[in-house]
Amino acid sequence: MTPPRTGASLCRLRALGVRYAGAAHPALGPIDFDIAAGERLAIIGESGSGKSTLARAIAGLLPAGAELTGTLDWPAAGRRPTPGRDLGYVFQDPGQSLNPVLTIGEQVAEGARHHLGLSGRAARAHAADLLTQVHLPDPGRLLAAYPHQISGGQRQRVAIAAAIAAGPAILIADEVTSALDTTVQAAIVALLDALTRDRGMTLIFVTHDMALAAQLAGRIAVMGAGRLVEAGRAGDILQRPISTEARRLLNAHIDLDTPPLIGEAAP
Amino acid sequence: MNAALLEVAGLTKTFHSGGRRVAALDDVSLTLAPGETLGLVGASGCGKSTLARVLVRLVAPDGGSIRFRGANWLSLEGAPLRRARRHLQMVFQDPLAAFNPRATVAGVLTDPLRIHALAPRAGWPDEVAQLLTRVGLPPDHAGRSILDLSGGQRQRVAIARALALKPDLIVLDEAVSALDVAVRARILELLVDLQRASGLAYIFISHDLAAVRAVSHRIAVMEGGRIVENGPAAQVVRAPESAAARALVAAVPHLARERTG
C-alpha cells in the first residue's frame, strides 16, 4: 500500500456491526466513523464496551464465525490492508502473542521475509536493526533468545518490532500497556509515540486510560455498550465531555493531583 | 493504645535462580498502626510481592522478625498459626485465579466461616448476605457461580471473603491492577469506606503510585529488595527523595485538562 495522502479518508465505517458466533446480541454497532490517513486516534472505553472488537474489525482480525454487517471501506488504498504488511497489530499480552518456541529473531524477521521478500540473512539483519529501533539492548544476542528469557516490557518491545517489520502504514496498539508496570508503560508509550511520528504512520491506540489516550492521540473515540458514543479532538473531550461514558472515565481517572480518598493525618 | 499492629524488622529472603542469587528482601523493616494503610510501591521485581507472601506466612524469610498483634508471628506453627491467620488476610491481583472456578459466591464466603467456626451453620446465609451488602453487591448474588461475575464483582467477593474473618489487617497485592479504570476507582472507595467503618489496617501493594496515593496514609518505596524511602503519602509524592520514587512519580499518566502539544 503506498502511503496515502495525509488527511484523506483511510478507513470508512458505515453501519458497521459485529456479532460473534453463537452470541445472541451484536458485540458492536452500528458504527459510522471515518479514520483519516496519518491521524493518531485513541479508541477508549470500559471493559466490554466493544473497543477491541472495533479495532479487530478494522484490522480484519475477527475470529472465525464472527458476522460482519454494514460496510468497511478503504477509500485511500482502494482495497483492504494486508495484516502484517500494510497494518501492524500489537496485542495486550506479549506473553501470549509471541510464539514461545520461536526465537525472537525468527519472529521479528518473519514479517520482513514474508512481506518484503528478504533473504534469511537480510531479514535477520533487518530484525537486528528493528530491535535497535525499539531500544532493546544487545540485539545480536537477543535474536537467538526466546520470549520467556526477557521481561514483559522487553517482550512488548519485541512485539512492536515484529509489528512494524514490514513497514506498515497503520499501527493498531490494543491495550498494549495494560499488563505492564507504570514505569514500563511510560517507556512503551514514548516508544510508540516516537516510532509512529518518525514514520508518519496512522496510529490507532486502544485503551481504557484517558490520560494515555490524550497523551498519544489527537482524536479520541469513546465507546460504550458496543456503540460509538462520542468522538472529537482529545482536548475537547478532556475539557467538555458530552457522553456519560467519557465523563465516567474522566471522573474515575486517578493521578497524583487527585485528592486522596483518605484524610491526610494517620489515625 | 497507639501500639503498633505490625512490626517488621530486618527481614531478608534470597532466592536462587539459575545459579544467580537474588535478594528479594534485603533488611526490610516497617511498622503499621491499627487502622492505618501503608502503601508499598515499586517496579516489577522489587520484592514487594515477596514481602506480602512473607507477611501472610506463605513464604518463610531467611532472617528477621515480625511481631503482629503483640506476638511473635513467625514462631506460630500448626493449629495456633491456622487460628491466628484469621486476623491477617490477603487479597490477590487476579480474583479468578484466587477462587475455585466451580465455587459459588455463597460457597466462597462460607468457607472461612466454617473453617474458623465463626458462626453457627444456621447463621451462614445471613452472614453471607451481610458480607455481600458490605462490599456493595446484591445479596441475591450468593447463588451465582464465580465465573458468572465480572472482574470487579469478583474482586468484591475476594474482599468480602477476607472481611468474613473480621481481620485486623488485609494485605492487598496488586488488588486493583487488573481492573478497568472505573471499576478500580470504585474498589478503592470501597476499601476506604470499609476501613472507616471497621478500623482495619491495610498494606496496599501496587506498581501504580496514583492508586497507592489515593488510599495510603504512608508510602514505602521498594527497589532491589530494600525499602529505599518511607514517609507520609503526601510527602513521598510531592518531594520524592530516592531515584526509585522519582521514577514512579514521573511515570504516572497525568490528565492534562488542556493539551500543550
From TrEMBL, chain A:
Catalytic activity line of the entry: Ni(2+)(out) + ATP + H2O = Ni(2+)(in) + ADP + phosphate + H(+)
Membrane topology of the entry: Peripheral membrane protein
Enzyme class: translocase
Pfam families reported in the protein's UniProt record: ABC_tran
Domain ABC transporter, chain residue ranges per copy: 13-250
CDD domains the UniProt entry points to: ABC_NikE_OppD_transporters (cd03257)
Protein's cellular compartments: Cell inner membrane
The entry's keywords: ATP-binding, Cell membrane, Ion transport, Membrane, Nucleotide-binding, Translocase, Transport
Family the UniProt entry places it in: Belongs to the ABC transporter superfamily.
PANTHER family from the UniProt entry: NICKEL ABC TRANSPORTER, ATP-BINDING PROTEIN (PTHR43297:SF13), OLIGOPEPTIDE TRANSPORT ATP-BINDING PROTEIN APPD (PTHR43297)
Subunit structure: The complex is composed of two ATP-binding proteins (NikD and NikE), two transmembrane proteins (NikB and NikC) and a solute-binding protein (NikA).
Record-given protein name: Nickel import system ATP-binding protein NikD
From TrEMBL, chain B:
Gene Ontology MF term list: ATP binding
Compartments where located: Cell inner membrane; Membrane
Keyword Ligase among record annotations: no
Subunit relationships: The complex is composed of two ATP-binding proteins (GsiA), two transmembrane proteins (GsiC and GsiD) and a solute-binding protein (GsiB).
Gene3D superfamilies: P-loop containing nucleotide triphosphate hydrolases (3.40.50.300)
Chief subcellular location: membrane
Domain of life: Bacteria
Annotated protein name in UniProt: Glutathione import ATP-binding protein GsiA
UniProt-listed PROSITE patterns: ABC_TRANSPORTER_1 (PS00211), ABC_TRANSPORTER_2 (PS50893)
ABC transporter domain segment(s): 6-249
UniProt function note: Part of the ABC transporter complex GsiABCD involved in glutathione import. Responsible for energy coupling to the transport system.
EC number: 7.4.2.10
Catalytic activity: glutathione(out) + ATP + H2O = glutathione(in) + ADP + phosphate + H(+)
Keywords, comma-separated and alphabetical: ATP-binding, Cell inner membrane, Cell membrane, Membrane, Nucleotide-binding, Translocase, Transport
Signal peptide: none
Family listed: Belongs to the ABC transporter superfamily. Glutathione importer (TC 3.A.1.5.11) family.
Cross-referenced SMART domains: AAA (SM00382)
Membrane topology: Peripheral membrane protein
InterPro entries: AAA+_ATPase (IPR003593), ABC_transp_ATP-bind (IPR050319), ABC_transporter-like_ATP-bd (IPR003439), ABC_transporter-like_CS (IPR017871), P-loop_NTPase (IPR027417)
Keyword Transport appears in the UniProt entry: yes
